[in-house]
Design goal:
By secondary structure, the chain is mostly helical. It has two domains: about 70 residues, Orthogonal Bundle (Helix Hairpins), CATH 1.10.287.110; about 120 residues. The protein has eight helices and no strands. The longest helix has about 45 residues.
Length: about 210
């Protein structure tokens, strides 16, 4: 299994400084860009091209909180984390809000699509702006929850730094992997909810 942290010279940590990580990625990917291998033997070109693709995949993984946590869990556990299960207790209210508002926005979009009168269309336009405001407010709540999650991930970094090195039999027991799985699930839900809400915002903008 490819270790994306090692590829980008990042220590295994739940939280990363993404700006610094991106800087390392750009430095490494620039040095291994296939264009630099112009004129090189075919085998060397293939090797450089493969490394370049791996670096890009590593950045996409580490740059996405959900993907990063899933990858970290897989590295630490030796297996992929289980699929999404029940909604995390701390996000149940947010889950209910997302479901309700998305359903109501869908009904509004369906009603708006059937309007033919210019006057009614004008009313729907104003209502559409109000729905967009509600959805964007909900997105703000999702971002706030993501901020709380990031803060907890940052607080876990010292535990990872103090743990025995990878490969040491005592490493797994020194890490709060059960909590990390909970945070991974929460991150996955937040990403999904944000995508669902953003989809409705886009639908409303097309009216």
């Amino acid at each position: 299994m490819t270790d994306s942290f090692a590829l980008l010279n990042e220590p295994r940590r739940p939280w990363l400084d993404l700006d610094a990580c991106k800087g390392r990625f750009l430095e490494l990917s620039t040095a291994t860009h296939p264009d630099r291998a112009h004129g090189a033997p075919e085998a060397e070109k293939e090797k450089i091209s493969s490394l370049y693709a791996e670096l890009n995949a590593a950045w996409r993984c580490l740059g996405d909180p959900k993907e990063r946590l899933g990858h970290l869990l897989e590295l630490e556990l030796g297996r992929k984390p289980p699929g999404l299960q029940t909604t995390p207790a701390g996000a149940l209210d947010l889950f209910m809000q997302v479901g309700r508002l998305c359903r109501e926005a869908d009904r509004f979009v369906a009603e708006r699509s059937r309007a033919t009168s210019p006057m009614i269309k004008a009313q729907f336009f104003i209502q559409g702006l109000e729905w967009t405001d509600q959805l964007q407010t909900l997105q703000g709540a999702i971002r706030s929850k993501q901020g709380e999650l990031d803060d907890e991930l940052r607080s876990l970094n010292p535990i990872w730094a103090a743990a025995p090195p990878p490969g040491n039999p005592g490493r797994a027991s020194a890490l709060p992997l059960a909590r990390l799985e909970e945070l991974y699930r929460l991150s996955s839900y937040l990403a999904r909810w944000n995508a669902q809400v953003q989809e409705r915002v886009v639908q409303l903008s097309l009216g």
